[in-house]
Write a structure and sequence with these properties.
- With 119 residues, the chain is of the alpha+beta class.
- The chain has one domain: Beta Barrel (OB fold (Dihydrolipoamide Acetyltransferase, E2P)).
- 30% of the residues lie in helices and 39% in strands.
- The protein has a 3-stranded antiparallel β-sheet with strand order 1-5-6. A 3-stranded antiparallel β-sheet has the order 2-3-4.
- It starts with a helix and ends with a helix.
- Pfam families: DUF1093 (PF06486).
- This is YxeA family protein.
- It comes from Lactococcus lactis subsp. lactis A12.
Length: 119
């Protein structure tokens, strides 16, 4: 009975670990910061039903908390506010997987210094 219980626990741990690893590879990534200084490139696209909508593409330099630079591209469903600071999650395979606006005070000092030098 103990062997079966240990086997089940080991299987649960193995499956849980594999699921977590898959999630980290698919959706995890490093944190980078950007400041929006110009409008995104407007593009009209259609969904599968043919409905048209606009998206705005951004190609911009981003910085990690230690100041390490990486050029990133991402899109938004609206033109982002100029002078806004964004925190990005950048996956090595998928690129930018998420972004959120943050306050200037939330941007690490080294990243902020690099962003201010590029303005």
């Amino acid at each position: 009975m103990k062997k079966i219980l240990f086997g089940i626990i080991a299987l649960i741990i193995l499956v849980g670990g594999a699921g977590f690893a898959w999630y980290k590879v698919s959706y995890g990534g490093g944190t980078y910061y950007v400041q929006i200084t110009k409008d995104g490139k407007e593009k009209e696209v259609s969904d599968n039903s043919g409905k048209k909508f606009k998206e705005y593409d951004y190609d911009i330099k981003s910085y990690q908390k230690d100041g390490k630079e990486k050029r990133v591209t991402f899109m938004a469903d609206h033109n982002l506010r100029k002078e806004a600071y964004l925190k990005l999650t950048v996956n090595s395979v998928k690129g930018v997987t998420s972004w959120e606006e943050v306050k200037k005070s939330e941007v690490p000092k080294e990243a902020l210094k690099k962003l201010n030098n590029n303005s």
